[in-house]
Each structure stands twice: as structure tokens, then as C-alpha cells.
């Protein structure tokens, strides 16, 4: 079994173990009074913000003998619109290369425990990196149609499953003054997230998530200038504090 895939499974099992331990101590409260970012439910407040970090492991097909994670700062902001609608804004920060996404959501409660949401995010990534003295620049637009399904356990434990498609709308890269042309597929791949949210300390909550990305183009690898003819697996860990 792939080492990164096995690590992802272990992380998921850790999530449920942590949820079980917390459930022993926490008291049940209405979902309207609990802070959340991933859980698909109509917002009860005007804004909701999370700050944290992500770690994405590069596959061996790209790094060959090395196996390392690419960290990034993570800022996630929700803005209530009307009734069941809200905006989802997300910023992945690395300094030299960054990704911004923004899109609407509609959340539909199915029962007291179960809820779902549908949305579509437009993403813009950009980067500037010096490679052997040559300034390399890249920008690109992506689209992320998505569906989420959430379940609320008795003791303030929120679990969300999210599936999204990854679409490349346009990619523009330059090495110095030379434009680099590449042929990327419109439907680049998909991503699947398992997220757990629970009270942390004070009035803050904690998000722990594992995201499995399957794509032939991942925006953090744009400097390779080479589209792959098959999807590669990029496991990602997400940690955030909901303020």
C-alpha cells in the first residue's frame, strides 16, 4: 500500500478516536451555537473565520527519491448572504505562490443531525520563483464544483465529507521572457475531504481534515511545466482554528 495513502487512513482513524474521547467530556448544544467552517449548514452569524495551515505530500512520480510535504498558511472565511446561502472564501499562502478561491454555497438541512450543501468555487493561483537565475512566473484559473454531506454527533462533533471536481480554465506560465505552452485537460481531476470539527478552547473550535487530491495538474507543481497523462495522488492534511 502507498505510504502516503496509509498515513491518510491512519489520520482518519485518529480523527474518529479523538471524536470519541471528546464526546465523553463535551455537552450537546444546538448546531446554531457551534462554530464551523466545513460543516454544511445555514450560517447563524454574519462571518466565520478559520486560520491554520496545510501540508501537502508530493508523490514519488514528481519528487523521485525524495518525499516531502509542501506547507502553506490557510485562511478560510465564510460570509452569510441570505437564508440558506453563504459565500466561501479560501486563501492558501506560501508567499512565492498562492491560491485564492471564492464561491457560493447553499446549505440544506435534511434532519436534526444530517445536512448537505452544494457550491462552486472559482480559484486563481499565482507564483513567482527564481530557477537557476531565471525568473519564472505563472498564473492560472481553476473551477471547483463541490458537494458536501455533514453529520452532527451527540457531543458537538461535526463530521463532513466533501467531494469536488478540479477544472483548469486557463494556465499562463513564463520562464524569463519565454512563454511556456502546455496542454492541460479541462477536467483535471477530483478531491475528497474528510473533516472533523469540535470545540477546542474558550469560544474557539478546531478543524482537523484529510484531503485526497487526484489530479494530473496540481497548482503547487506548476514550475514543472509538464502535464501528466494520468492522475497522481496528493494527500493533504488541514489544521485550523475557528475564531
Automatic annotation (TrEMBL):
Keywords: Signal. Residues 1-26 form the signal peptide. This is Outer membrane protein beta-barrel domain-containing protein. The lineage of its organism: Bacteria, Pseudomonadati, Bacteroidota, Chitinophagia, Chitinophagales.
